Amino acid sequence: MGIPPALERGANRVDAPTRAHYGRVFDVAFCPWDESLIASAGEDEAARLWLDAGSGSGVSSYGVCRGHKDEVVRVSWHPTSKILATASADGSVGVWRVAQPGMEASATTHDPDSGTTALVDKLEGHPDQVYGCIFVGDGDGGGPMLATAAGTDLHLWDLERVTVLSKVGHEPIPVEAGSERWEPGFLFSLASDGGARNLLASACSDGAVRVFAHDSKASTAETVATLPVHSGALGCATTFLSGGDVLASMSTDGTVVFTDVRTMTPMTKVTSPCPTMGCCAVPSGGDGSIGSWFAMCGRDGIIRAIDVEGSSAPKVLNQATDHPVPLLCVAADHSGRRIAAAGKAPETPQGTNGLGTLGSGGTSGFGGVGILGARKAPNAAGIILWDAAGSS
Question: Where are the WD repeats (predicted)?
Answer without folding.
Answer: 18-50, 65-98
